[in-house]
C-alpha cells in the first residue's frame, strides 16, 4: 500500500490526522509561511502521545528563500541534534543564490542527522536544473525529495515527477507533494509510479460543508489501498 505523509502544523492537526488513520506525518509550524521548525515542546509531546507514529520533522529556520548564512546553518544543525531522539527523519535543504543545490550546507545538515533519513524539501521546486540536482542529492545520500515536479501542484507536475522517479530509480525516493487532495491522490500515484505521497489533506466542499482533516485522511487512505 502506498504511504500517505500528512503535513501537520499543530498538535490538534496531528491528533486529527491520526484519528483519520495517518501513520506518518511531517511535523512543522507556521503552515501559512510554508512551514517552519516546530517547537521542541511540540515534538516531544507528539512523540509521547503517539509512540508508534512515524514523525518527519521540518527544519527551516525562517520564512523566505533557502539561501542561509553561517549563523542560520548553525541554528538548523543545533535544532536537528536536539530533536533526533524524538523524530524518525529530518526534512530540510538549502540552495545557492544561483538556484543550485547548496551542496556544502546540505551535506552539513545531512551529517547532523547521524544516519537518520533526510528529505530535501520543496526548495527543490525552485532549483534551476532538477535532474542535476537529483544526481547531487543522491550523491549526498539524501533519502527522498519532496517535490511537485516544479509545477504549481503535484497533479500538474505529473510528467516531471514520472521523469524524476525514473531518473532516480534505486537511488532515492521521490515524494510527490503540493495540492494533494481526495480528488487527485490516487491519480498522482498511479500516473507517476510513486510509492509515497505528501499532503496537508485539503478537503473539498460538498453540500456546503468542507470535510475535516480526519475525514480527508481517511478518504485518501481508502482510495490508495
Unreliable parts = none
Element order: H for helix, E for strand: EHEHEHEHEHEHEHEEEH
DSSP summary: helix tally? 8
Subunit organisation of the chains: single chain
What fraction, in percent, of the residue positions are helical?
25-40%
Q: Could you explain how this protein is built, in words?
A:
This protein has helices spanning 11-19, 40-49, 70-83, 103-112, 130-139, 158-167, 185-192, 213-223, and strands at residues 3-8, 24-27, 54-58, 89-92, 118-120, 144-147, 173-176, 196-199, 205-206, 209-210. The protein is an alpha/beta fold. Strands 7-6-5-4-3-2-1-8 form an eight-stranded parallel β-sheet. Strands 9-10 form a two-stranded antiparallel ribbon. Helix 3 (70-83) runs parallel beside helix 4 (103-112). The termini are close together. The mean pLDDT is 95.
Amino acid at each position: 500500500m502506498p504511504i500517505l505523509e500528512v503535513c501537520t502544523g499543530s498538535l490538534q492537526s496531528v491528533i486529527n490526522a491520526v484519528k483519520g488513520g495517518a501513520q506518518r506525518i511531517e511535523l512543522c509550524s507556521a503552515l501559512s509561511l510554508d512551514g517552519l521548525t516546530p517547537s521542541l515542546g511540540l515534538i516531544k509531546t507528539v512523540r509521547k502521545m503517539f509512540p508508534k507514529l512515524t514523525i518527519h520533522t521540518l527544519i527551516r529556520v525562517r520564512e523566505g528563500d533557502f539561501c542561509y548564512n553561517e549563523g542560520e546553518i548553525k541554528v538548523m544543525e543545533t535544532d536537528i541534534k536536539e530533536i533526533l531522539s524524538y523524530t524518525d527523519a529530518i526534512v530540510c535543504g538549502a540552495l545557492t543564490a544561483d538556484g543550485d543545490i547548496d551542496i556544502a550546507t546540505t551535506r552539513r545538515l545531512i551529517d547532523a542527522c547521524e544516519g537518520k533519513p533526510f528529505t530535501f524539501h520543496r526548495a527543490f521546486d525552485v532549483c534551476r536544473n532538477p535532474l542535476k540536482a537529483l544526481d547531487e542529492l543522491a550523491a549526498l545520500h539524501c533519502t527522498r525529495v519532496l517535490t511537485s515536479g516544479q509545477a504549481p501542484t503535484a497533479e500538474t507536475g505529473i510528467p516531471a515527477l514520472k521523469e524524476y522517479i525514473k531518473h532516480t530509480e534505486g537511488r532515492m525516493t521521490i515524494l510527490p507533494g503540493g495540492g494533494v487532495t481526495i480528488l487527485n491522490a490516487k491519480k498522482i500515484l498511479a500516473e507517476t509510479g510513486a510509492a509515497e505521497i505528501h499532503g496537508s489533506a485539503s478537503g473539498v466542499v460538498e453540500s456546503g460543508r468542507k470535510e475535516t482533516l480526519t475525514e480527508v485522511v481517511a478518504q485518501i487512505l481508502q482510495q490508495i489501498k
